[in-house]
Design a protein that fits this description.
seven-stranded mixed beta sheet
């Protein structure tokens, strides 16, 4: 406990250094502007409460404390200074704040006092005209979600995975949104897992393409084993996808099975559906990994077989060439008394014998599949 108190004492002063701790959200501002706050709104009875002028997170919380409802604050890649005031206002735990600012976290679910801290890995498929040994197939990002009794704070990292469309869609479902912050947490989880399902379908097409190329007849001038780089690259992308999916399964099971004060019982039922979809995605990803292992082994085996066939052909031609080499080597020796050396038909007879022997060897090897 003393270690935790020392850590809080060390971190909290740094959270108060910002001279402007709250970033104001302006609906008309350019999304590429430097402010980390993407949106800030108060929801009451499932409807967004519009305020006059610009609204800060502090103003949103004042509205919540005066009239009820909950605040939803969205941020994109905030710095420590930008997040400091928000963390102090909502009493966020320093360890969770550090994870949210620095990102690169493993998907997880943690509870700090009356706040749930959830980390999601977003995965997006990168379109490409042709799969190569250096193609990027998936791009990952992160969404951190702080869920309290009367607030939701989402922190997004990565160029893609915007929650703007999700917010607008959720605002149309007033019945679901009236359940409070847990409805937002479910919507984010469902949105992330739906993204996984879309990526699974796209990656299945890439794997099918590689599989067809490996087991189809090689084109003229190409050799087996040239697809190993593509297979290995695709396997690395599947591994990155797996790191996003597998750790999230346990948190979704906890949200769907274990009663929590911050999760509405009606919303908990929806988490079961998300957990089921996530389990299916995990099975698909594990299947991709095993299938790619098999394809890679088959590709390497085909390359080995092709090399063996080349070696057999080289050996066969070497055996054929050995006949004239041996005969010419014998008759190239400087001896006075050699068979047929002075005979008029000795030279054509030797050439004929060489041709017959070479033809016989060639026919025998071709019949046995060596040529």
């Amino acid at each position: 406990m003393s270690m935790i108190r020392d850590l809080r004492a060390a971190v909290r002063p740094s959270l108060r250094k910002s001279s402007n701790p709250f970033n104001t959200y302006d609906p008309t501002r350019d999304p590429s502007a430097s402010s980390a706050v993407v949106d800030c709104a108060v929801y009451r009875d499932g409807k967004r409460v519009d305020s006059d002028g610009c609204q800060t997170p502090r103003e949103a919380m004042l509205q919540v404390r005066e009239g009820g409802g909950f605040a939803w604050i969205g941020l994109h890649e905030p710095t420590e200074e930008e997040f400091a005031g928000i963390a102090a206002e909502f009493g966020l735990h320093p360890l969770a704040v550090e994870d949210a600012v620095h990102a690169h976290q493993r998907p997880k679910l943690e509870r700090y006092d009356d706040t749930l801290f959830t980390v999601f890995k977003t995965v997006h498929y990168i379109e490409h005209a042709e799969l190569t040994a250096t193609s990027e197939v998936v791009e990952t990002g992160e969404v951190m979600c702080f869920t309290g009794r009367d607030f939701v704070i989402t922190v997004r990292h990565g160029g893609k995975g915007s929650l703007r469309a999700l917010r607008h869609g959720l605002q149309k479902d007033t019945e679901l949104l009236s359940k409070g912050p847990s409805s937002v947490l479910h919507a984010i989880a469902d949105h992330v897992v739906d993204g996984y399902i879309a990526v699974v379908g796209a990656m299945q097409d890439d794997i099918d393409e590689v599989e067809i190329d490996v087991f189809s007849a090689p084109s003229k001038g190409s050799s087996r084993g040239t697809d190993a780089g593509r297979i290995y690259q695709l396997k690395r992308e599947v591994l990155e996808f797996k790191r996003a999916v597998s750790p999230l399964l346990r948190p979704m099971q906890l949200l769907s099975e274990r009663p929590m004060r911050l999760i509405d019982p009606d919303i908990q039922k929806y988490f079961r559906d998300v957990a089921d979809h996530l389990a299916r995605v995990q099975e698909e990803v594990l299947g991709f990994d095993e299938l790619l292992n098999s394809i890679l082994q088959a590709n390497l085996a085909q390359a080995t077989v092709a090399q063996n066939e080349d070696m057999r052909k080289i050996t066969s031609w070497a055996a054929i060439i050995a006949v004239p080499t041996a005969v010419c080597g014998v008759y190239g020796m400087n001896f006075d008394y050699m068979p047929e050396l002075r005979w008029q038909y000795g030279y054509p007879m030797v050439l004929t014998a060489i041709a017959v022997i070479c033809f016989t060897i060639h026919r025998t090897l071709k019949r046995n599949g060596w040529l």
